[in-house]
Amino acid sequence: MGLRIVVAACAALFVHTLIASAQPQTDARREIATAVTLAAPVSLANADVSALRPTAGPQLGDAAACVRLAGGAGFIAVFFEAGKVINYRRAVAVDRCDGLAYEPLAPVAVRSAPMPNPKTSVQAVASPVSIQNGK
Question: How many structural domains compose the chain?
Answer without folding.
Answer: 1
